[in-house]
Amino acid sequence: MAVTTVVGNPKRLSRTLAAAEAAAAAIAGAEPRTAPIDLAELYLDGIEPPHEGFEAALARVRGAQVLVVGTPVYKASYTGLLKLFLDQLPPSALEGTVAVPVTIAAAAEHRFLADLQLRPVLAELGASLPVPSLALRESELPELDAHLAKWTGAHLPALAAAAGRAGVGVPA
């Protein structure tokens, strides 16, 4: 099972990256994963796509069976950095890919705001979104493992079925 993570937090090595990577690990179980695509690194020098790093990221995104897309909630939406990346993807770039948004909000009332706008964009790019997003508050990050266990317990079977692999998330 090819599980890839892309994170749109403009801060390098962010808590969003850590949470999305933890979610990808929980989904993949014992299966190998690719290194995360940290968009803060990809666009570090403000280089606009297409460029070599973007093309490599695009190839990894297209090769993913499951794509974990992480973003903090910024101004009631997902980040502009993630939007820049998604806007550069060709039509149907996520065809055949199961996507799992992971959003992190500072306040409870903002918890689902990024998700409301991110899911339609991922679907427009061809992704399948068969399970609810993992929507977290910053205050929940210290108990991330417990939240991941609850989320995977509820949604991993449907996610695995959609990805075409019953063994997703099952340790060897």
Automatic annotation (TrEMBL):
Gene3D superfamilies: 3.40.50.360. Keywords: Flavoprotein, FMN, Oxidoreductase. InterPro entries: Flavoprotein-like_sf, FMN_Rdtase-like_dom, NAD(P)H-dep_FMN_reductase. Pfam families: FMN_red. Residues 1-130 form the NADPH-dependent FMN reductase-like domain. It comes from the Bacteria. One of its GO terms (molecular function) is oxidoreductase activity. This is NADPH-dependent oxidoreductase. It comes from Glycomyces albidus.
